[in-house]
Amino acid sequence: MKEWIKQSISLKIDNDIAYMKDLFKDNSDIVFREFYIKEWKAAFVYIDGMADKILIDDYVLEPLMKENNSVQKVGDIKDKILAVSDIKEVNDLSEGIKAVLCGETFMLIDGLEAGYIIATRSWPARGVGEPSGETVVRGSRDGFTETIRFNTVLIRRRIRDTRLKVEPKALGVRSKTDSVIMYIDDIVNKTVLDELKRRINKINIDAVLDSGYVEQMIEDSNFSIFPQIQSTERPDVVAAALYEGRVAVLVDNSPFVLIVPATLPNLLQSPDDYYQRWIYMSVVRFIRVLSIVLSVILPALYVAVTSFHTSIIPTKLAYAIASSREGVPFPAFVETLIMEVSLALLLEAIIRLPKPIGATIGIVGGLIIGQAAVSAGIVSPIMVIIIGVTAISEFITPNYAVTSALRIIRFFLIIASVVIGLYGIILGILVVLIHLIRLKSFGIPYLAPSVNPNIKDFKDMYIRMPFKYFRERPEYMKPRDKIRQK
């Protein structure tokens, strides 16, 4: 289909119909319905399957053809006959064509230098269900879908404020994908909002099929392994972020909503942290941080200690490790890499396979193959324990993108530990920390509030204080309205 050009609607409807038929040539799902309203010729253009035929037939076409006695001039048709609530008048043919491709119905009338876009979108859509990747013990069970209008409604249910803004934007030169930017006008950080709009306006690609396209094109550093934009399937997470002064980006055909800016402490938080009592969730947050440390350094620490620093191991533990490694033909480094690669393959297989088969593969890979590897003397039992603890610790992290980054860091530290032992681990951690300190998300430090300490912001970082202490919004976000509880 050739690209259309911007042109005005002519008084002769036949010219416009001929132009659109040529434009939509070889498209069997484009419907052209021509009819008469008294002596005026009219036409509908819509896509079969994307427009609601019942609405068109019963509330538009039938009144126009049967109940047109009150019409004295062509300009009265819109106000006296059309029984639809959402209708827009346009003067450019290109706007009508774009509306047709979005699922609307475009109406032309002979003798009228304008066309009507009638809201008739009605395509198959998945119902609102529970997010599979962000489960909670306590909290709402509704999640975003692939339909952008459903998603905006889920957010509006939680923010009943006239200052909530929803700004539309079409992305993709060919796909014309619907997207919106959502924010609360008197809270949002205007600097972040303006920068986000500038980056989105620079996107010039033929198609945007998912919010992941947008995320990768507007992030600060494309070469960082850490996610600088938060993505979520939960409307309550988006609402909470908007109340803090952040901005949400919704893209049609994607159930993942983007939140900017993102900081590492934000990515390590779960909705459960706020829905349950603060004492228990503060302990859970501490366990979460400890699990991250374990998942990153445990395999590298094993390699460093068994290869370079055996003297720091207690004697009985050293004997236990040595006896368990008796008969293993590989050094600790190779043994660790074998298990790490096997774990990565197993996780990818579980994700890609259908759920019933994936669960079976997890059991087969984790138990049978692991036990067989130990019995065959390829790996030691203590290595299986270390990799098992590492895997469990890794997936306590609520954000999958952060989990993937930690996995890469773990491989990096294992290689560093082979070279110079514990010193390699320390140097590797320093390199990662320097990178994190330098990293920013839309002008906000990635480690905030750690890098610009404000005692008020620490009440919701490594621990979660009671709600009565949450009188102000996070200072590092620089919100316009700083007070959220009086």
Automatic annotation (TrEMBL):
Lineage, top-rank taxon, reads Bacteria
For this protein, the parts annotated as crossing the membrane are: 286-308, 328-347, 359-392, 412-437
Protein keywords: Membrane, Transmembrane, Transmembrane helix
Q: Does the keyword Membrane apply?
A: yes
Record's signal peptide:
none
The UniProt entry, under Pfam families, shows: GerA
Q: Which residues form a coiled coil?
A: none
Family that this chain belongs to: Belongs to the GerABKA family.
Question: What is the protein name for this chain?
Answer: Spore germination protein
